Amino acid sequence: PMTRDELKELACLGFSADLVMQSFCHTAAYPKPVDIKTHQQLPDFFSTRGGVALRPGDGIIHSWLNRMLLPDTVGTGGDSHTRFPLGISFPAGSGLVAFAAALGVMPLDMPESVLVKFTGDLQPGVTLRDIVNAIPYVAIQQGKLTVAKQNKQNVFNGRIMEMTGLPDLKVEQAFELTDATAERSCGGSTIKLSVETISEYFRSNVALLKNMVARGYQDAKTIMRRVAKMEQWLANPVLMSADADAEYADMIEINLNEIQEPIVAAPNDPDNVKLMSECTGDPIHEVFIGSCMTNIGHYRAAAKVLEGAGTVKVRLWICPPTRMDEKQLRQEGIYDIFAASGARTEMPGCSLCMGNQARVEDGVTVFSTSTRNFNNRMGKDAQVYLGSAELAAVCALLGRIPTVEEYMEIVQAKIDPFAGELYRYLNFDQIAGFEDEGRVVAVEDMPKIEDILGIPAGALS
């Protein structure tokens, strides 16, 4: 609503930015009367100006917006976790976001960059979320980051984090790394990915966007224009890359071979990172598996840990990032496992991560896959650990943070043998009939790409 009010002040009747999106992920699950009114009015305000309006229950804006990105483009958003895994984004306040949407440009003093270079290979039992936490862990070891607020040192503050060395990550995985640069106080972030990775993602996203139009999402022309640009890129896939002699404000090298166990962010600061072995035995009362830091593979892996164990020893919260994740997990029987464990399942969205809807009990200790663990964010006086979904599930089983040996034994028995099946991502182009699911717009009534691009009919065939 704040961005809407700013757009009214700018007398914006149509967006100049190629893509503008709004969602209700902060308010959909437990709406107040004012939220319901906003849910009814805001979509038309955005779509009549050429924006894309999501619906309550669709899920987290970042998980959707990532599906609409183009490589080597610049964006912004009114949420600090607007951290594109493709191109680059600079989160901003509602006024600047409205300015960028209305005019298609934004003023920016270009920050310096810090290079984070990954070498080696991911070790057994170590997840990408552990690598997220390894960035501040190594920076602390090198004296480039301190946890204490007084006279705090932070090499990343206000700078762009450029990450290299993991080109074959899936885009969903890459977002775990770029998303978490918000907690490093970065101005922005980039990650170098392969053409093959992005091509796979685009083929999936083209199917998703066409399904959105089939379901009646607006603005249909804006969505189909993005489809056209993705297909143009797929026909000529080219990516920008850093200059060989690029200069950086600093450089941190992280050898993955040296990370032999999970790394967690301990209460209550995302920079307060510790090896899991330093926290072994700490009691856990509630576990949250959700937020924009998760993808469908995390829920499959967590379910595999919980399968057959009965009711867990903690209060367990499950909240997938999008309705598509939820549907697929239900079809695969994953929700049955969560139900058997006694989990409370939430509508796709931000849930406990935002802290403005449902909350944990006062004074409890929580293990969470969410983005940040600031004081009182998830619950009054809550002490919150941040880490992987896999470790979260183990904590739910045991009611405490495990020993390294306990964790590795569970991972080796329950996750590793099934990794190929668990860590499959949502490739919508490979789901039979997906483009027609929920169709309310006839194929012949969908906007034609040729018309949108202003080229002769049949020129794309």
Unreliable residue stretches: none
Q: How many discrete domains?
A: 3
Helical coverage, percent range: 25-40%
Q: Return the structural class.
A: alpha/beta
Shape: globular
Question: How does this structure look, described?
Answer:
This protein is an alpha/beta fold and 461 residues long. It has three domains: 108 residues, Aconitase, domain 3, CATH 3.30.499; 100 residues, Aconitase, Domain 2; 159 residues, Aconitase, domain 3. The chain is built from 15 helices and 15 strands. The strands form five sheets. Strands 13-12-11-14-15 form a five-stranded parallel beta sheet, with helices on one face. A four-stranded parallel beta sheet has the order 7-6-5-8, with helices on one face. A hairpin with a 7-residue loop joins β9 and β10. The two termini are 42 Å apart. The relative contact order is 0.14.
List keywords for this structure.
single chain; 461 residues; Aconitase, domain 3; Aconitase, Domain 2; 3 domains; 15 strands; globular
What would a concise description of this structure say?
The chain is globular, with a radius of gyration of 22 Å.
